[in-house]
Design brief:
Elements lengths: L1 H27 L14 E3 L3 E8 L12 E10 L7 E13 L6 E8 L7 E9 L2 E10 L4 E4 L3 E8 L13 E7 L1 H11 L4 E8 L3 H9 L7 E4 L5 E8 L5 E6 L8 H8 L7 E4 L6 H10 L3 E4 L8 H4 L7 E5 H10 L8 H11 L5 E5 L4 E8 L2 E8 L11 H15 L5 H19 L12 H7 L2
Helix pairs in contact: 2-9, 4-5, 7-8, 9-10, 10-11
Subcellular location: Cytoplasm; Nucleus
Subunit structure: Homodimer.
Pathway: Carbohydrate metabolism; D-ribose degradation; D-ribose 5-phosphate from beta-D-ribopyranose: step 2/2
Length: about 450
Amino acid sequence: MLASSKSFFLFTILSFVFIQTAFASIYSQLQFIKIVSPKNGDDVEAGKPLVVKYTMQPLISESVSAGKALKLNINFHKRTGNSKQQKVAIIHKSCPVTAKDDKYVTYTKQWTVPKGTAPGSYAVDFVELVQLRRTQITATETVKILNYGSVNIDEFFFVPHICQSGETLSSTEYGVRAGGKGANQSIAFAKAGSRVYHAGNFGHDAVWIKDYMQENGVDMTYANIKKDERNGRAFIQVSTDTGDNCIVLYPGTNNTFTAQEAERVLEHFGPNDWIVQQNEISQGGEIMNLAAKKGLSVLFNPAPLTKGILDVFPFDKVTILVVNEHEARSLYEELGGKEQIAGLDLAESLLAKFDAMQGVIITLGGEGVVARFRKEKETKDFKIQGRKVQVKDTTAAGDTFVGFFLAAFVRFENKDYFERVKMALEEANYASSLAVQKEGSMDSVPTLEEVNDVHK
């Protein structure tokens, strides 16, 4: 029994020495990966190309010979300390890497860091057969979108037709949902893949909306709960015949915005960023002035378009104006326009009034969208045809358009300027055509994947 134990012990020792020797031999053949671009520790910007380049000698020397392919997986991870890495995306799956000589494999891959990648520490993993090789990088945002907007509790009344003056109608259905032009647009930005920050005031009765928005990808860092205030509300009639709607607003917490609060929020944004505004909150004009002073680009959707709006908002600070045809005509008339013009003529007239404005977009409902943009000395008109779909509810169509347009406009920033505008208009047009096929506000906003499925 003793002899048997000694033999087993000796066998174990010899096996351990053999394994150590074998692994030492393998280890001596290794040259771990080198990230040439970016270098270890360099910033990688969300939405920008990441060029991964490395040279390696595989773990198993027999795996490499000139002209032979080696399977490789490359993953993009969120670093979480010593705990398990959280995979963000796959850069390449089952990639055949071909050796150029009998010793080393060199590989270069250009890949785009996912839009919406939050600042933080990340890792790129290279899985080559059984060997995992990792280098650390960091990710930073390039463009942030700040939506300074309204939040409403939407109460829906489904009726045969929009109620006329003096008429009493029975509603065939009633519903309560989260809404508000600002909140709807923030949801649209998030579903379109943008990193969007919503700055808004919520009543004590609307905490559930704040939670819902956060769950759907909206950054709520700058959202406030007003414990002593009731939230804004919208009373919405929806025609079961045509899908058209009519809305009555109660401002609530949407009327509690201040310039002082805005100054504190805007400290976190700068010249590379965008601010998006509507006309449903207090101090909107002053907030726009403060944002423009900090160098933010301004997308303005002046809805509802109230009389005297030109005296409230600094339209000369607006970068892109998005209006429907009714709003465009009202604005044209406030500016002194007398002629009966429509479509592109309206866009041309409005753009001519404001030297700093880059573009005017006029949505035409089911007919599509027209726009006029200028870049330096060149000007271009756009006309995108509407899609013929079964309309159920138009409530969030315009908000969906705004969110998807700017999200795409930012995403395509490396394209030719006018091609970028065209691509963004087309994507937004498809997105809004999907939104009208569903009932509700936020729930009707499609995802980018759903838009891409129909926009091929």
